[in-house]
């Protein structure tokens, strides 16, 4: 299968939004809870201060999906900073449409993100993965990823909008 991994362009954002919604359905997140939009992605990725980096996987028209899509996967990442390691790349999403899995496309996307991270002087690549998806855990492990929950006992915490707003209101400038 011919597949090209390339930098995301603004013209791809409609497809990225489609793939984001596919992920939401897989994880049973109601679509009305998705705050991101094509406009938000455009501003965040291509505005004055881009806040993410994205690569897409694209197949030729003759290999398009059952629904007619040629953009069939993506990896969206942000640069973070570790006080112990310095600059890191955090992969927020690595996704390939189910009908295209098993063809090394996810690996190609992850390798392209890793290449960008290495060129930017990153020391680590990080990603959170649902324990409900053992195939994803195996994929990352097979490619050299270490499960910090198992290896180091690190736990992930999230503060939702309500908690965030509450903490912000308590802060004294």
UniProtKB/TrEMBL annotation:
<dbReference type="InterPro" id="IPR000182">
    <property type="entry name" value="GNAT_dom"/>
</dbReference>
<protein>
    <submittedName>
        <fullName>Thialysine N-epsilon-acetyltransferase-like</fullName>
    </submittedName>
</protein>
<keyword id="KW-0012">Acyltransferase</keyword>
<comment type="similarity">
    <text>Belongs to the acetyltransferase family.</text>
</comment>
<feature type="domain" description="N-acetyltransferase">
    <location>
        <begin position="3"/>
        <end position="169"/>
    </location>
</feature>
<keyword id="KW-0808">Transferase</keyword>
<dbReference type="InterPro" id="IPR051016">
    <property type="entry name" value="Diverse_Substrate_AcTransf"/>
</dbReference>
<dbReference type="InterPro" id="IPR016181">
    <property type="entry name" value="Acyl_CoA_acyltransferase"/>
</dbReference>
<dbReference type="Pfam" id="PF00583">
    <property type="entry name" value="Acetyltransf_1"/>
</dbReference>
<dbReference type="GO" id="GO:0008080">
    <property type="term" value="F:N-acetyltransferase activity"/>
</dbReference>
């Amino acid at each position: 299968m011919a597949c090209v991994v390339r930098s995301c362009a603004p013209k791809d954002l409609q497809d990225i939004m489609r793939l984001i919604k596919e992920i939401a359905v897989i994880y049973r997140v109601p679509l009305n809870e998705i705050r991101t939009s094509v406009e938000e992605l455009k501003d965040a990725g291509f505005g004055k201060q881009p806040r993410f980096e994205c690569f897409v996987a694209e197949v030729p028209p003759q290999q398009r999906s059952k629904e007619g899509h040629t953009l069939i996967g993506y990896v969206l990442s942000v640069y973070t900073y570790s006080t112990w390691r310095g600059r890191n790349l955090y992969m927020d999403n690595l996704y390939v449409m189910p009908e295209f899995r098993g063809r090394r496309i996810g690996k190609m996307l992850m390798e392209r993100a890793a290449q960008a991270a290495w060129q930017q002087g990153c020391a680590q690549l990080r990603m959170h993965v649902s324990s409900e998806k053992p195939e994803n855990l195996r994929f990352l492990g097979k490619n050299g990823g270490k499960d910090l929950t198992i290896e180091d006992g690190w736990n992930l915490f999230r503060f939702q909008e309500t908690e965030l707003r509450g903490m912000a209101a308590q802060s004294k400038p």
